[in-house]
Amino acid sequence: MTGPNTPLVQHFKSLVYALGAAPADRPFVTMWKSATEAEAVTFGVFRERARSHAQYFGSLGLKKGDTVILIMPQGIQLMSAFVGVMLLGAIPAILAYPNHKVEPAKYHFGLAGVSANLKATLTVVDKGFPEDLLSHIALHANSRLVCCENELPSQPWLESGDDVEATELAFIQHSAGTTGLQKGVALTHGAVLRQIKHLAAAIRLSSEDRIYSWLPLYHDMGLIACFMLPLACHLPVVMQSPMEWVMQPRSMLEIMSMERCTLAWVPNFALQFMARRTRPEDSYGIDLSSVRALINCSEPVRASSIDEFVSAFSNHGLHRNAVHSCYAMAETVFAVTQSDVAAPGPSRIWLDGNALRRQGVVRVVASSAPDSLCLVSSGRPLPNTRIRVVSNAGEDLGISRVGEIVVQCDSMLTGYYNRPDLTEKAVRDGWYRTGDLGFLFAEELYVIGRKNDLIIVAGENIHPEDVEEIISAHRAIYDGRVVAFGNYNPDLGTEEIVVVAEIRNHNDLVNVPAIERELRSAVKAELGVAVGPLYIKPPRWIVKSTAGKPARTTTREKLVAEHPNLLHKGDHFNV
Amino acid sequence: MSDPKAQMIEFILKGIIRSPRTPIDEKTPLVSSGLVDSLALVDILLKLEELTDTRIPIGKIQAKDLDTVETMFSSALRVGKPRK
Predict the structure, then answer these.
(1) How many domains does chain A have?
(2) pTM for this one?
(3) Are residues A246 and B42, on separate chains, in Cβ contact within 8 Å?
(4) Which of A3, A71, A374, A517 is the most exposed place for a label (fewest CB within 10 A)?
(5) Above 70 in pLDDT, residue A101?
């Protein structure tokens, strides 16, 4: 419970001040590498490292108001560089680090749009950044690329940030989405600190809490919940690289057990992913009794995923009410709603599936009713947050009707960085249009999907148009005759990308295996995710709309009719 | 029973890529080529542990160590511990 000893009652005008107020000897970040290897820093040491980065960036001419792109592996160096930029009153933005060998030409394309939009003065990479990609980072004329030393000379912490006001920009976090369509969300110190205050209250944050995270820092869940929150509230956080977690998902459970962590945020798929990929013999020694809230966020929350996780680990000390839910987005800094962490898990309701799908009407039925659909609440709005559900025309739908979720709160974005056109489209009369579909019921929010055809793969938003464009570019594919869509795979606990593409020439049908391989490589290289089922069809197979474009819904129906095994059975709700 | 590497190739084709027509052999790049994405690595790793009768300690293996069937078996030999 929040009490007089928690630092949360303090008010700071900037994140820099919040960090400066932390006790020097209090543990801050532990970067876990293996059972025998970890790097740990206290708040005091972290501040010295941040100051070293500030001095280094200052020596390169960085000044207040400049923007800086950071492309470094997950870890303390990246985190202290991020704060080092803020110490100068400059504005950092973290971009994803290339995980695997990426085709250089594709990397150039991927980064060009974002770096051009940010007009960054500096782009900072680490010494280990792949050499063949260095020359492919696209920078604008007044920007500089620097390789940051792993070890910078330690600098004493001096009070700084005197001239940083709450209304000034703290950093830019990118909205989830593929690189070409990522939008830089500009956030002030004040907005971030207000979000942290509300979130801390909603999850009843205590000075006894210890956070675990494998979440990437270029994503709001990792950056806000697992870096800014512990930074401003002076709490320890144990981190792991996302790639190490995804290769060995049981590692999260082992680290939480060993480090006695109390809080973590995960996308929905992670629950099932861990439950199904932790063998009984690997569960020995797992003790989750310290976990008071595991918060399911960033994908629609599924009852089956929660139940599977709880059932798999309740014998390992996991409290039956430990899994909670949250609805969050980069544009509001992070959380919009949060389930009551003192309640026995998020609320659930059973609805008439037909009424929901066909009429967008919420009709509660018994759980045993035919075609009943179980939906999990994302909780109540945070303090100073208002939610409305509106029709396509923007009319209020009130409660119990499905529509677009629009949000207003005191931690809203200042705007999309250098994109007033996008800001104007997304924010109308002070309300942010989320593009998510959901409904309000008993004062709680239920999120059921996206208004457009966005595909959510393990928490990453993938626009089908991006996939279609890449596939269309292949010489053997009829230009524009490609359809991509998301399909929930219960084994993965998330959506996978399904692609159907029309071949240009009948003669190429004999080369399908090689073409398929090239198409998979192209999508992976550009978007960083793999294609699931891929179907290459003869000419004139794809259904076109009256405008002559591929009709996504009708083509999907035709594909499912030909390949009925494509659709998995589950409790998912496809809008 | 065929040799473990052949079993791994069969598993990847049928269980991961789900396209038996895709030509892969022991030296085919899987991760760096985009044939296999990060979400599938855990399934490959669990299969590798099963086929080599080892347990690979957390934090001791990276994606590049699983890039080909050949490298994954040599990695298991290097860092795997005999299963109890």
Answers:
(1) 2
(2) 0.85
(3) yes
(4) A3
(5) no
